[in-house]
Amino acid sequence: MILDVYGRVALEEDDIIDIMMTDPAVMPTQAMVKDVDLSAISDIIDDVYDFQQYHKLDITVPEFDAQNQVNWLMPIEYKDMDIAKWILEQCETEPELQRVGEELLIFQERDLFDLLRYLKYLVDTMRANGVIWGVGRGSSVASYVLYLIGIHRVNSMYYDLSIGEFLRDK
Q1: Under 8 Å CB-to-CB from 36, ≥6 apart: which residues?
Q2: Cβ atoms of 1 and 11 closer than 8 Å
Q3: Residue 121 in contact with residue 75, Cβ under 8 Å?
Q4: pLDDT higher than threshold 80 for residue 50
Q5: Region 17-27: what's the mean pLDDT?
Q6: SS3 breakdown of the chain: % helix, strand, coil, rounded to 5?
Q7: Helices marked H in 80-137 — which ranges?
């Protein structure tokens, strides 16, 4: 199995054989394969599997990331959600509204509203399934918006943390 610089996993022939011999139930129904003659194993894999040949990409990692940042896998109710409205509705005081407004403008300038929608979906899913996650770490705790979504449990307004610590330019 290979993992390339883009984070893509590709199965090699030995990987497919190992999975089929040990536990065929864990064979992914969709996968990329590297150096595998799909016509040679077509009788074995039938029409159940959608294997595609791995190919090296001729784009940079940042270009690959940019292409994939439009493909957020989440339910339609989250894709269509007015995340700014939802976040603003969580505010209880005028200073909170001002801070959230400032942060939302920064998120919007960086075209990160889809990320916020996905994070809301992620937190809701983890809560629904009893998943426990950490209190928070690193610069993300400087974002009050992420606190309201539930990504972390550090109230950046209480501790007077600047959003600049989270979304600073390189």
Answers
A1: 11, 12, 13, 16, 51, 53
A2: yes
A3: yes
A4: no
A5: 77
A6: 50, 10, 45
A7: 83-89, 94-109, 113-128
Is residue 78 a contact partner of residue 120, using CB atoms and an 8 Å limit? Answer: yes
Q: Give the whole-angstrom CA distance, residue 22 versus residue 68.
A: 33
What strands lie across the sheet with 50-53, from one edge to the other?
2-3, 9-12, 30-34, 50-53
Domain ranges in the chain? 2-68, 76-165
- pLDDT recorded at residue 142: 95
User: Strand, helix or coil at 18?
Assistant: helix
Nearest Cα neighbor of 164 from 150, 148, 149, 144 is 144
Q: Is the pTM of this model over 0.85?
A: no
One-letter identity of residue 148? L
CB atoms within 10 A of CB 73: 7
**Tokens standing for residue 132:** 């426990």
